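We emphasize that the prediction below concerns an isolated chain of 587 residues; any contacts that depend on oligomerization or on bound cofactors are therefore not represented. The input was used exactly as deposited, without trimming of termini.
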Amino acid sequence: MKKVVKSLMVGIAVLLFAAVFPPVVAQEVEQESSYGPGEGAPIVEPNFGGDPTNLNPLLISDGPSADVAARLFPDFVGIDPFTGATTPGAVNTIVADWSVSDDGRTYTFTLRDDYFWNDGTPVTSADVLYAYEAMASGEIDSPRIGDIASIETVEAPDPQTVVITFAEADCAALSSIDSITPVPAHVFTELFGTDYAAMNDADYNLNPTVTAGSFSFANFRAGEQVTLVANQDYPDSPVGHVVPEGWVQRQLANQTVVVDEFLAGNLTVIDSVPEDRQAELEALNAAGEVQLFEAPASGWQFISFNLADPTNPQNAVDENGNPIDQGHHPIFGDVRVRQAFALGVDHAALNEGAFSGQGIPVASPVLSYSWAYNDALEPWPYDPEAAMALLDEAGWIDHDNDPSTPRIAQGALYAEDGTPLAFDLTSFSGNTSVDSTAVLIQDQLGRIGFQVNLDIIEFQSMLEKLDGQTFDTVMLFFNGFDPTNPDELKDLYTPIGDVVGSGFNSGSYNNPEVTELFTQARTLPGCDQAERKALYDRIQEILHDELPMYWVNTSIVPVAARGDLENFSPTENSLRWNMPAWGYQLE
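Result of the prediction step, given as a token string:
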């Protein structure tokens, strides 16, 4: 698989690992197992914060759903988990090979012949074509529509061939193509035909009976667990069969319960050990009782500002591509208020109080392991005096000479005079660092005249508020950034991702220069990396200054697995590339 599906998470999941492995091609790797087909105990993983909402890969925007769907559906193209290079025939992908036209616009893919849906139907080009046409229709609630915007046509001239043509040569072509997850066209055609909108509320979305991944769907018990069973026809296990008899995602209350259940032997692996339990797990690792890996996270914790009118959510553009007036958020529509917010956060105190000193401040959404990282930028400093001066300038005054009470508007850009500088910070329950971060930020910003009302709700309810664009600010995690393709960030910071009900630009940020820079970087003739980096550097400079989000931090994330888990061998690019080979027995 190329990457973790871009998703909004209850915790930072892991993409990169510190372990060093030789650069070999994954599909040539063979492992041994002491377990036969289905003889291993089920792999049990935790989820906290809410149930998955949709297991149709075309509609997923949240992490819990993406984790389940990754076990059920193969990708189109993907990376070698050892080298990180986009590779024909990669694990859990249906493409055997491809060629590119001389003008760089047309990609011709030859599909593998060893992938089958679990009803015995071969996976063919029709499954890719249906997925693309559903996404391109604009009728489904897919947050990934922006990924395919540069594609001009998709053709399926025969069952084993897919031809994808771009409007112009595209430096991010393979990443765009990988956003088209194949779906069972024979099933979807019978269910929906070309009425793609019917897919949005289909029973299939939480009962995907026909799939082609390493596991098949068994059942979903809301508030309890999702259960999958081994698919022994899956072709990509490095031991030649699927060892675990099944895979289970358990819904748990919070991170504390997750660790306790892991230590009790009721979970197989946890991919985000909370900061306050790390020392405990490290001691068990030293004693050989657990396997522990440390890795830089593939995303960041952030606070998204709603820049538009939250009482009247609107898409960025209409069906003809014309801009729609979205109004302005009365507080955060003014960049000076967002900058004051950033200057009012004491990250050092936040780091100690919420992240046990493990948080890493960031200056932009591009992380340091990416070739596009702009190392000239610095995170916003803690400077409450400068923050209060900015608020004065923006027309939010300390009317009673008491910094601990909320300021009021007097000549503010978008708020009526007398409006208090008060807003909701919406977040979710169950994550210890998020809980602590919210309380600390409430206190820190309260000292400079913000009234921060904590709105801590269930995770899926928070996502509904976020997607509906009815929030003031929202705090959560973004996961799944592919460091080889910073173009992915356009979904967060250009109008293409600003769609009410779906899309990742829920804060309605729109700077035409940023949009044009993304286009230039993606379509640069020759795709020279140094030239593209200069464009991404400028994008990061603008985002740093205009702050459509406040990036709280990233971190080094410990991942823990049972000490007796056979073949648990994460690479620096993928935690679960060989999950079908994982084996252990319950006592």
